[in-house]
Amino acid sequence: MYKRQQLTKTSLNVNKAFKGEPIETKVNRIVNSKEPIKDGAPIMYTERKDGVRPEMNIRTDRMEIAVDKMDFVARANENKRMEAIKSREAAKNTQTERNSGEPPTPPITGNQQS
């Protein structure tokens, strides 16, 4: 006798399809009511004097663009981390101040000379 595999229920909804508007109805609506076209792809062309934008140029090395964006993200994360460290140090200083009754000495950093 073979062991049957039990089906498990998941909360994953696979098919969220909906019936779209037929193209004939859409064209008829746009032409007759003279409403602007709201949906569509972004404009890909640029003025000749502006040249080709790097994000649209197939010959561009997109790695440079990605590195610039990741540098921005890394700086933002570093700033957020430094703010968290400062807030923790401030909380620690206030806690030790409450416990000892005397003000804590400021932390010594490598940039200060005695």
Descriptive overview:
The chain has a domain of 76 residues. It has two helices and no strands. The model has no long low-confidence stretch (mean pLDDT 82). The protein is 44% helix and 0% strand. The longest helix has 39 residues. It has 114 residues and is mainly α. The protein is extended.
In brief, what are we looking at here?
The protein is mainly α and 114 residues long. The chain has a domain at 24-99. The protein is built from 2 helices and no strands.
Please mark out the parts with pLDDT under 50 across 5 or more consecutive residues, or reply none.
Answer: none
The helix content, as a percent range, equals 40-55%
How far is the first residue's CA from the last residue's CA?
83 Å
Radius of gyration: 30 Å
Please indicate the percent range of residues in DSSP E strands (runs of 2 or more): under 5%
Overall body shape: extended
Strand tally is 0
Number of helices: 2
**Helix vs. strand class:** mainly alpha
Report the major sheet: none
Q: What is the H-and-E element order?
A: HH
Quaternary organization: single chain
Chart the SSEs and their pairings:
Layout: H1 23-33, H2 62-100
Question: What are the defining features of this structure?
Answer:
single chain; 114 residues; mainly alpha; 2 helices
